[in-house]
Amino acid sequence: MKKFKFVNIVLAAVLLFAIFSCATTTVTTTVSKKGNNGTAESKAAANTEFALKNKADNSAEDNSESVYKIKELLKNGLNTLYQGSVSEGISQLVSVLAEGSKISNPDDEIKSLIGEAETTLAKIGSSLIMQAGSEWIDRDKNQINASTLDIGTKKAVEPGIILIYNMGTAGNTVVSNAPVSFKFIRGSGLLNGFVNTNNYGKANCSIAKIDNPDGENIIRATLVYRIEGYTYTFENVKRDFVYTPPAKKAAIVVLEKSKTGVSDDPVILDSVYNKLKEVAFDFSQYNGVLLGDKFMKVFGGDPAAIKDLGFEKNISYIVMVLNDCYYTKQIVLNGKKYNIYKSRANATTRIIRVADGKILYSGSVQGISGQGGSREKAVTDVLRKSSRAMAKKIGKDIPEIQSVLSGIQN
Question: Taking a C-beta distance cutoff of 8 angstroms, is the pair 205, 192 a contact?
Answer without folding.
Answer: yes
